[in-house]
Amino acid sequence: MQHARTENASTVQSIVERWREEEGPLLPILNGIQQELGYVPRESVPVIAEALNLSRAEVYGVVSFYHDYREKPAGRHVLKVCRAEACQSVGGDAVAERLEQLLGIRFHETSADGAVTLEPVYCLGLCACAPSAMLDGEVIGRIDDEKAVDIARRARA
Predict the structure, then answer these.
(1) Same domain, yes or no, for 40 and 104?
(2) Nearest 5 degrees, angle CA 1-CA 34-CA 107?
(3) What family does the Swiss-Prot or TrEMBL record give for this protein (predicted)?
């Protein structure tokens, strides 16, 4: 565990150094950390804050505001289920509940085996094909019970 923290700290420091002199560096730094590590470790917040002369609250506020930033590593698969009105209006709530049931987790959780993280998203731009989801970047529209079962099987693989 200590080795991973040291490695993470080195990665964070490298990304901070790369972007700190650019205009508006906070989001590129957070994006770089998220891309490299798969999440933004809580211990990186004070490092970023100090480098950019911001308060820890300001940095944490940005991390917690944007839904794509994670504070913990995601599962091997990430399933994002649309929770917007268009999807809700054609059965999205039932699909979301069914996926939670099939995966045995709730939104904002990762399965105990680390296989899948379930996240809400508020529009995938597939309103005409609602209800929809995205599994590891692949969009899936017109989800019915059969597709939900298939999505859960793929996410558990």
Answers:
(1) no
(2) 90
(3) Belongs to the complex I 24 kDa subunit family.
User: Quick one: how many helices (H) and strands (E) in the chain?
Assistant: 7, 5
Task: Give me the torsion for CA of 74, 78, 81, 84, rounded to 10°.
Answer: 60
Q: Which of 65, 88, 118 is the last residue of a domain?
A: 65
The model carries a pTM of 0.81
Count of domains for the chain: 2
69-112 pLDDT, tens digit per residue, is 999 999 999 999 999 999 999 999 999 999 999 999 999 999 99
Q: Rounded distance, CA 92 to CA 124, Å?
A: 13
Instruction: Name the residue range of residue 41's domain.
Output: 2-65
Residue 129 is labelled as binding a ligand: no
Q: In what order do the strands lie in the sheet with 138-140?
A: 109-110, 116-121, 77-82, 133-135, 138-140
